[in-house]
Amino acid sequence: MKTVLILGATGNLGGLAASVLNERYPEVGLRLTSSRESGCDSLRELYPNAEVLGADWYDPSSLVEAMRGVDSVFIVVPDFTTDESIVTPNIISAVKTVGGISQVVRLIAIPPGLTAAQLSPEFLATRCGANLSVIAKPLLDASGLPMTYINVPCWIMFNLPWFLAPEIKARRRLAMPRLSDSSRLWISEADVAEVAAKILAEDPSKHVGEEYVLTGTERIDFVQITKLLGEVIGEEVVFAADDHPLRDAMGDKFDALMTYFRHETRDYGGVPVTNTVARLLGRPQVTLRQYLTTNRDLFI
Ligand SMILES: NC(=O)c1ccc[n+]([C@@H]2O[C@H](COP(=O)([O-])OP(=O)(O)OC[C@H]3O[C@@H](n4cnc5c(N)ncnc54)[C@H](OP(=O)(O)O)[C@@H]3O)[C@@H](O)[C@H]2O)c1
To answer: In total, how many domains does the chain have?
Structure first.
């Protein structure tokens, strides 16, 4: 039986990928990790058939233990906190120490062609999105490991219920700082997770060496999302250039996020639309209207 290790299986994308693998690919064995005891407990409850271990990517020996005997590894690191200059070398070293791993799948977010040299120290210090990936990818490329990249240089739809829903529910306002507005590509978290699960479940030889760039199907700005939300909810929603709700939602991460937006609204603007999700999954990808309709209850 093939065994897939998900490092960070309590996370949004790692958790969804675990769930898809568990439900649709019963032939795949799952090993799931969290760096927290409480995270391991909830993984054991959710996935009684999986092996669950504690692993912290700042603790090299825990990574080696987590990787022993697995065939494929999936890595998704969190924004704001990850020090890629430590985490990625530790992961590379653990894969090499263990040996025999046939595929390392890493989620990244890099507008095609963007490199660390093009990003100011101020942007890199946000440790968000491309500012993580432009550090990690060159290290992974140089490592000689059997890599597959899932590159998502756009916004994931879960951002909407995460930091916009409370204000939409309470005051029917899509409230965001003016400088964060941009015409963006949007992709559903379910599509990203399905792609990851498929890549992890299939024969690695089909995917090693590939970089799959996943995007939304069309560019949509906040005014258009506001209109869409109004249609889905059946009540008027207005756009408000107001940073207070985001400040409340993000707490001490707010300033870093505002700095990140200055680079993101600039550097993600030229990302071309791809059909990679439809090509890999053999079905059209989820549109923002479909996502909002399915998740309408989160906004009313
Ligand atoms: N939001 C967007 O629109 C968007 C768009 C494109 C790309 N992305 C990228 O998506 C990624 C975030 O994905 P996500 O939301 O799924 O992340 P997440 O929910 O924050 O999950 C991160 C995972 O990392 C684990 N983790 C944290 N510290 C750890 C440590 N020291 N050792 C081992 N594991 C640790 C966490 O598990 P424990 O805490 O249980 O250990 C958690 O499972 C970022 O890289 C971001 O750039 C986001």
So the answer is: 1
How many angstroms does the Cα of residue 233 sit away from the middle of ligand 1?
30
CATH code, 211: 3.40.50.720
pLDDT at 52 over 90: yes
Rounded to the nearest 5°, which phi and psi values hold at 107?
A: -80, 125
- Is any ligand 1 atom within 6 A of the Cβ of residue 34? yes
At 29, phi and psi to the nearest 5? Answer: -80, 145
CA of 230 to the centre of ligand 1 (A): 31
Ligand 1 pocket check: which of 34, 37, 123 to mutate, most ligand atoms within 8 Å of Cβ?
34
Indicate whether 94 pLDDT > 90: yes
Distances (CA, A) of 205 to 92, 103, 262: 20, 9, 39
Domain range for 276 is 2-156+188-216+270-280
pLDDT band, very low/low/confident/very high, at 163 (cuts 50, 70, 90): confident
Write out pLDDT tens, residues 199-251. Answer: 999 999 999 999 999 999 999 999 999 999 999 999 999 999 999 999 999 99
Is the CB of 159 within 6 Å of ligand 1?
Answer: yes
Q: Is 129 in the pocket of ligand 1 (CB under 6 A)?
A: yes
User: Which contiguous run of DSSP H or E holds residue 227?
Assistant: helix 222-233
